[in-house]
Write a structure and sequence with these properties.
Strand order of the largest sheet: 4-3-8-7-6-5
Number of helices: 4
Largest sheet: 6 strands, mixed
Helix content: 25-40%
Structural class: alpha+beta
Shape: globular
Length: 166
């Protein structure tokens, strides 16, 4: 009886592990081989790399306080929004970001650090998050929506949260 219990427990553990591995592979758009068959899902490695290049234009533009560096990352129709200090919606055309980056209080911030927290891609649509610290003395969490237009990824909207300085 004890042997049967342990065999059952082992079988459940193995099956649970296989299910978890299959779910992880499916979430990552990878391929999973089971019972000699291959199940193909689209992979977005090239798209991820292209999106990272676009996002890095934004990051570099912030670090150098130059909108001309980040401008190619954005659609001309892009928007930017946040919630201001009074809790009200603020923003509009992306030109507002470019104007703000090019004048004080923004300044070059070679010490700034940014990380692409996540990128979620489905076909020609994607979303991404970047967390940045010490960009002209500010820290941000930026959320971007991107579309793949004519084979090229472009940011169509940005929303953000400014963190309170420590």
């Amino acid at each position: 009886m004890k042997m049967t219990f342990f065999k059952t427990l082992l079988l459940v553990a193995v099956m649970s592990g296989l299910g978890t591995a299959a779910q992880a592979a499916d979430r990552q758009g990878g391929q999973q081989a089971a019972a000699g068959k291959s199940v193909s899902k689209p992979t977005y490695v090239k798209d991820y790399q292209a999106i990272a290049q676009v996002l890095n234009l934004y990051i570099d533009g912030c670090k150098q306080a130059r909108s001309s560096i980040m401008k190619p990352a954005f659609s001309e129709k892009a928007t930017i929004f946040s919630v201001d200090a009074k809790g009200k919606l603020a923003g509009g055309p992306i030109q507002e970001l470019f104007d703000a980056i090019d004048k004080p209080p923004f300044r070059p911030s070679p010490e700034a650090q940014s990380v692409i927290v996540n990128v979620d891609i489905v076909g020609t649509a994607a979303s991404a998050r970047i967390d940045s610290s010490d960009v002209s003395g500010f820290s941000f969490s930026d959320f971007f929506n991107l579309l793949k237009v004519d084979g090229k990824w472009t940011i169509v909207s940005k929303i953000y949260h400014t963190h309170v300085a420590p």
